[in-house]
Amino acid sequence: MKDFPEKLKYLNRRQFLTKSSLGLGAAAISMIGNPNRLLSSPPNSSIKGILGNPHFAPKVKRVVYLFQSGGPSQFETFDFKPMLDTMHGEELPDSVRKGQRLTGMSTDQSSFPLVRSKFNFQQYGETGTWVSELMPHTSKIVDHLCFVHSMHTEAINHDPAITFFQTGHQLAGRPSIGAWLNYGLGSDNEDLPSFVVMVSKNGSGQPLYARLWGNGFLSSRHQGVQFRAGADPVLYLNPPPGLDDHDRAQVLNYLEQLHELHYDSWGDPEIHSRIAQYEMAYRMQMSVPEVTDVSSEPESVFEMYGEDSRDPGTYAANCLLARRLLERDVKFVQLYHQGWDQHSNLPNEIQSQANKTDQASAALVMDLKQRGLLEDTLVIWGGEFGRTNYSQGKLTSANYGRDHHPRCFTIWMAGAGVKPGFHYGTTDEFGYNITENPVDVHDFHATLLHLLGIDHTRLTYKHQGRRYRLTDVFGHVVKGILL
User: Fold this and answer.
1) 8 exposed, middle or buried (CB, 10 Å; 0-12, 13-18, 19+)?
2) What is the pTM of this model?
3) Domain limits of the chain?
4) Cβ–Cβ under 8 Å, residues 441 and 153
5) Helix (H) or strand (E) holding 361
6) Alpha-carbon gap, residue 414 to 108, rounded angstroms
7) How far apart are CA 250 and CA 273, in angstroms?
8) CA–CA gap between residue 434 and residue 275 (Å, rounded)
9) Candidates 2.160.10.10, 3.30.420.310, 3.40.720.10, 3.40.50.10090; correct CATH number of 49-229+312-481?
10) Which of 168, 215, 227, 417: disulfide with 223, CB 3.0–4.6 Å?
């Protein structure tokens, strides 16, 4: 009893509420050990985030981000530059480059010959949008797309550039976009994660790291959950063979006791995150097999997405699975597809990537539209930077490569809140510099949050004495693309 006054001195309101909430976590674990109790409890319509509600009425309810890792060439896809046809093989004028930074892969070049695209462009849709022959399926939906031709970034190498796009900072350690959304807005489906990630199988190119969809300094409950191809879409979700319900209940009971001891010793709030993750894992044992089972999809859907959609783990199959997740109100779905880094042999390699992705990307937009989901879903397509207008390495009649170019590149968006059949931003006739309406990565993030009903300056988290946000201390909403 003599120690009680000393302990009471440290038991402030925050500590009391935090410790008391362990009882809720223990109750959650006890429900996991008793499936009947869990299933008989009334379901919640949503699990709110720290904001409780958006700052203002959102245009977007859910997002699917089709990230093309490696940096697709804008000159072979959506940015037609006749000047490159005219000046093919001539030197990039110094007045255009202006001594701007090159990567280490181009610094030893003594010549920077301009190179036209090997692929023909034509105009499509009522908007007369120029699209490469590489993208025959995307060309059919251009009137639904909002193109931003003036994206730019500070990063010139892959890892900082991808990290910048996914976390708002070039150095690792910050929360990813999906983690921020989960922290701020929570979930609209208590049986599936709010943030799901898929990476195309058999991908080659620049490596991708789990920190790209990580929680950074936020609670670990906000990190992305990766779905994989195969019998176990989510690793370690199902109990190992030979473990029956009784054994599992015992394990969870002991785990509860260990958590109580650990929390009493350290007061670590991350324990609550683990408890929440155990409960979600139990619910996912039933929900994940259902959402990943595409056997009920009609033949017409597989034909729409392409033959690869029958092969789990391919980009096309992941696009189809993304639609099924969005139907179930998963808030943020991130697809990564590697292989767009063509420093050499670009004509052959970019043709391969387009064949793998063009049909499924277009199909996802149209599938969402025909189901009425595009009205409150935002689709984003793009990479971490663009490619140079000059050839990296030797330029031949049949072959060339393009180096990284962060100063301007193209992305597109479709769906809720953005203008369909619209083009924003322009580049010079060489496709080297932005001439009108630049959009940087922070602007992109600020606009994305705005569409979801979030003021990007007000979604913050205090860490190590400073308040952080996805847009850091930058970013402006690009109102010109909004409806």
Assistant:
1) exposed
2) 0.89
3) 49-229+312-481
4) yes
5) helix 346-370
6) 40
7) 21
8) 49
9) 3.40.720.10
10) 215
Residue with tokens 């007000």: 458
- The token pair at 423 is 């083009």
- CA atoms of 423 and 127, how far apart (whole Å): 9
Angle at 242 between CA 236 and CA 247, to 5 degrees: 85
pLDDT at 42 (0 to 100): 36
Q: Which two tokens stand for residue 459?
A: 């979604």
DSSP 92: P
Task: Give first-to-last CA distance, the chain, whole Å.
Answer: 66
Amino acid code (one letter) for 139 = S
Residue 220 phi/psi, 5-degree rounding, is -65, -15
Q: Are strands 332-337 and 195-199 parallel, antiparallel or unpaired?
A: parallel
* Residue from 267, 260, 262, 258 nearest 7 by CA: 267
pLDDT above 80: residue 240: no
Tell me the C-alpha distance between 353 and 349, whole Å.
6
Q: Considering the chain, what is the average pLDDT of its residues?
A: 89
Residues 248-262 have pLDDT tens digits of 667 777 777 787 787
Contact 308, 356 (CB under 8 A): yes
Q: What token pair was written down for 18?
A: 């935090």
Report in angstroms the alpha-carbon separations of 256 from 11, 26, 140, 243, 261: 23, 6, 55, 18, 9
Pairing of strands 426-427, 195-199: unpaired
Contact criterion met (CB below 8 Å) for 403 and 387:
yes
Q: Per residue in 431-475, pLDDT tens? A: 999 999 999 999 999 999 999 999 999 999 999 999 999 999 999
Instruction: Please give the single-letter amino acid code of residue 265.
Output: S
CA distance readout (Å), 214 to 158, 179, 209, 220, 352: 18, 7, 9, 8, 30
Long-range contacts of 297-304 (CB under 8 A, 24+ apart): 301/367, 304/363, 304/366, 304/367
Q: Which of 356, 349, 352, 307 shows the shortest CA–CA distance to 335?
A: 356
Strands 461-463 and 466-468, how do they pair? Answer: antiparallel
Instruction: Using alpha carbons, select from 175, 224, 227, 219 the residue that is nearest to residue 198.
Output: 227
Specify the amino acid at residue 393: G
Going by C-beta distance under 8 Å and a sequence separation of 6 or more, which residues neighbour residue 48? 185, 186
